[in-house]
User: What shape does this take?
Amino acid sequence: MYGQQILIISHDLELGQSLRALLPSDAEVQVLSALTALGTPISPAHSASLALVDVALLSGKPLNLLELAPLQAMPVVLILPESLPHTALNPLLAQLHVLGVLIPPYTTDTNRSALDAAIRNAPLHLQKVELEQQLATAQQRLDQRLQEINVIYTIGKSVAAAMSLDEALPRIVSTAVNLTRAEEGFIILQEEGRLYLRASHRFNEPDAAPQRTPAKDPVAQRVIQSGRPVMLKRETKLATGNLVQALLYLPILRPGGSTMGVLGVVNRERAAEFTEAQLFALSAIADYTAIAVENTRLFGEIQREQYRLHSIVEQATEAVLITDEHNCLLLWSRSAANAFGIPDDSAGKPFLEVLQHAQLLELFHQAIEEPDSPQGEIVLPGGRVMNAQITSAPQLGRVVVMQDITKLKELDRIKTEFVQTVSHDLRTPLTTIQGYVMLLDRAGSLNEMQRAFVRKALDSLADITDLITDLLDLGRIEAEYEMPMQDLQLQQILKEVQTRHQNQARELNINLEVVPPETPLQVRGNPYRLQQALGKVVDNAIKYNRPNGEVKLDTEDTGEHVIVRVKDNGFGIPLADQAHIFERFYRVILPETESIRGTGLGLAIVKSIIERHRGRIWVESAVGEGSCFTLLLPKNG
Ligand code: ADP
Assistant: This one.
């Protein structure tokens, strides 16, 4: 309790002196005769650990808060004229930190102990007051921060939703000005190496409007070059000749770190400087500006892309229909609208409701159920034939593309007709020639030489017939617009091939063996064509073999595919020829195989057929040891 500074404030100096007796002897006591002697609240002339205030000072005249202000900083003991609740005297007294009251007669033990208690409590009280003040200041700062964050959050949200810079930039600059209470603010962006003022706003003026005028601002130039903010706190004459009191410029940084522009706030007349906290808040706003610029750029790009896509789809010659992941129509081409009578307002409506074509709907159902892209022919009411394919992109939607194949179908029909006619017209005279040549020896006995000529003529006739058959076949396979497919058992085909080639093998003394598959193997394919392909490979394996040779067929199920291997231990194929044997008319020249008849078209036909089944064929071979042809067929065709 030593070194206490105690003030006694009373008109009645005698009372003041007598109260001294109640105070500790070591206290530093000062008696003042008026409240005004305390000075202003900003620089109090007296600061004390306790003040004894005579309420008689306050009676009879209106009291104002300013007079009381110095007292608010210290704990107070009120000197009452009589025993009354002190707040009843003047409601303003409730603003003071009253630690006790003294009531007449003053020099009593009750008053002494009231004073003792007040003196004891005073330091604690002072501490409490100080803490309260600190808390209030902190609270105030926090409130301000929260308010700023709220403003930043709100602008962030609104900027994120903005679709154009003309919409976003004025909002941003107004927010920056309001937040910093600056006289004015602006956004400058660098576009193609030049600076443009894109938005500006003056405090308390109507909302900023978008603009795009060339800007000459050396400070902004500096910020763009350095990528660092500039803050001027005192009156400065800028290079432009303009005088400013305070200025804060922040770089608007791209995600990669380069500067795209400047967000600035300026006080030209008011000498109010900007703070670090404002710099912090504005940098968040500058970041939002960068996001807005990037967003609108991306949005513009997407819009352009969308426009391009719309035009491409709309003008596509094919009938194109695009749906979203919920199978609702998004886009369609004009030709699709004409072909299927799609009303203009169908966007967003379910495909299955808008499109009324049974075949197309069936195909679409198929696309929903199967991940593979289904394909099929669709006949339109007027007789036009479309080839439709539906491609699904998971979580994106489906694309239906339909090509008008009416003409192709017609051509196919004409070609088939032509092929049939030609094959008939060519083959008939050949068969006749063949018949007559074979009958030659019946017309009279032939000498050895004549018989040899007849044999040669018959061989050549067989060659021509084979060639015509192969050529016509290849033409037909390649021209066939669609190869009808069905589910079939592979072992059935293998058995058929074995039966057909058994005699040929026997004649050449070759052992033809088919290893039956362990489990039934189902593939999707065209039975006639698959049999033809496998037959040609087996025919070669027998043909290009030596007496007592072996030809063995086995199979394998890989899950997604079925593999058929045709192995022989015949002459084999040189490595250099292996890459060419599937080409048309390619024949390997080996002394051993020279005399073996063939057209060079067999493997080209096989390859064509396998590829139409979306399969693959390849060969592994060594000269003198034999060959192995592998056919890979997808199970689902
Ligand atoms: P070709 O009618 O001449 O047999 P292919 O197209 O069927 O025509 O075969 C092309 C060539 O590949 C044949 O001429 C032959 O030289 C070679 N070849 C095909 N299969 C075999 C095989 N299993 N062994 C050896 N050579 C073969």
Q: What stands out?
A: The chain has a mean pLDDT of 87. The chain is about 45% helix and 25% strand. The chain has five domains: 5-133, 162-300, 316-404, 408-478, 486-634. The first helix runs from residue 13 to 20.
